[in-house]
Amino acid sequence: MIFVQALLAGIFQVVQMLLVLALAPGLTGLVRVVKARLLGRRGPPLVQPYRDLSRLLRKDVVLAENASWLFRVTPYLVFTAIWLAAALVPTFTTALALTATADLIALVALLASARFFLALAGMDVGTSFGGLGSSREMMIATLAEPAMLMVIFSIAILVRTTSLSLIVDFMLAGGVGLRISLGLALISLLMVAIAENARIPVDNPATHLELTMVHEAMVLEYSGRHLALIEAASMLKLVLYMALIACIFLPWGIAEPGQGPLDLAIGLVTFVLKLACGAVLLALFETGIAKMRVFRYGEFLGGALLLSLLGAIFLYVSTGL
């Protein structure tokens, strides 16, 4: 019985990893399509991100003369770290092989590792754009990571664990109710997700203007399969954050261990619908807001940190710890 459960958990884990990898370009394409429709344009087709990745994979890699081994290895490290982080987040079921290691602290560590290597690679070639993007990325990280950790601590105070599967089980069990503290944590996590995914108003993934670039500035020197891995990692990160928000604050539909095929199918359909709704909401948000100046990033992420801190304080007081 234990062997069968372990085998099923391994199969579900592989399915989830392939699922997020397959849906990531589609999610990015859906956001672009909805934004184009809202702006009155035809826009690119939904499958355009798949075509872009396929085209980049077929192209030769062009490397700068002074590029070190770190510059060559970073795309593989970044892609692997973010894909592994995405595998830790329950999407359609919590019966996964990596459930024991699916910890929010480990998730933050994997994302921080990917950011660290990407920032180093941006500075490795020695271009002004790479250094500019890396410095801005680290500035954003100094506020985004503490806010993310405070959101984790807020949830840990309520659930008494940082395990994602146990958090999902706790939320599905009911009894949480409407809490202002969880609302503050949700808003803070949404703000962090926007900053981490280089979305408007923090960054604009569709521009290459010198005064506004953050993520794009770090990857300007990449080409071919290296650039394909970087772009795929960015798409995976967007899926990761949407799945993380969904599994913590909207866990309905996620199958629990021991449930049947019907519950797993419902979990799959529910997860795809959640991603679609998230893409539409993201497109609506980006269409209705303008890009902010670089010097206001601190105010934006400082607000996220303050909200997460208030949420942690409210939960601490309400639980009587």
UniProtKB/TrEMBL annotation:
It is a multi-pass membrane protein. Its main location: membrane. Pfam families: NADHdh. It comes from the Bacteria. Keywords: Membrane, Transmembrane, Transmembrane helix. It is found in: Membrane. The keyword Transmembrane helix applies. The chain crosses the membrane at residues 6-31, 76-98, 104-126, 138-159, 171-195, 228-252, 264-285, 297-317. InterPro entries: ComplexI_Subunit1, NADH_UbQ_OxRdtase_su1/FPO. This is NADH-quinone oxidoreductase subunit H. It comes from Skermanella cutis.
